[in-house]
């Protein structure tokens, strides 16, 4: 179980460069409940506020994940993420990952320069910084979540594939998202029609195969993740929408 929960939170936030963020409004809050088998394993949340960063309009997004209940008794996770996302480009300007996972801690801050495809990575624990060459339109772990929500209906047709590069910790990871169909998903609020999306993930040590994660997002203008399931080498993790507020468009359950 060690590291599996925190990796699931990473994938949960990642599953998600858009030119328009018009379907998201300031004050939106999404809360999720995470289960490992029959255990209530933890919670995750995303809060979005409109602000400015370096004089330009941005969304400030805070992501938070933690273990709860019996899982927390033997593996404590407190994961904090922050991202300033340029409202006009959908690209991140500043990103924070500050986590405690069992006895492991990490605190990174990243400043993105999309004009020359570089970033400045600062390790706050070691008090050092370095400049790293990246690729065009790189996302951070939080902004990638909004990549999916900013796509147009034409880009989310069944069979379509979207590729993106995501900066996680101190390394760049390529991801591929494929829309494989639509399904009605039952939730605590009722049943809602969703797009079924499968991201390709690394197989072997944690996940059962390259397509061991499935994401269901509301098939409407919100494109809100309703549920996520990850098939692990041992058991599975599931996350489902537990509460929401200030969503721009009504969710039609």
Provide the fold topology:
Blueprint (H helix, E strand, L loop, with lengths): L3 H11 L14 E8 L2 E15 L2 E12 L1 H6 L2 E10 L5 E10 L2 E10 L4 E6 L4 E6 L5 E2 L2 H7 L11 E8 L2 E17 L2 E11 L12 E6 L6 E7 L4 E10 L8
Parallel strand pairs: 9-10
Antiparallel strand pairs: 1-2, 1-15, 2-3, 3-4, 4-5, 5-6, 6-7, 7-8, 10-11, 11-12, 12-13, 13-14, 14-15
Pfam families: DUF3108 (PF11306)
Organism: Kaistella jeonii
Protein name: ATP-dependent exonuclease
In short:
This protein is mainly β. Helices cover 9% and strands 55% of the residues.
The coarse overall form would be globular
Helix content: under 10%
Which strands sit side by side, in order, in the main sheet?
8-7-6-5-4-3-2-1-15-14-13-12-11-10-9
Residue share in β-strands: over 45%
Terminal residue distance: 34 Å
Number of strands: 15
The number of distinct helices, counting runs of at least 4 residues, comes to 3
Mean of residue pLDDT values:
86
Low-confidence stretches: 202-208
Pfam families: DUF3108 (PF11306)
Protein name: ATP-dependent exonuclease
GO molecular function: exonuclease activity
Keywords: Exonuclease, Hydrolase, Nuclease
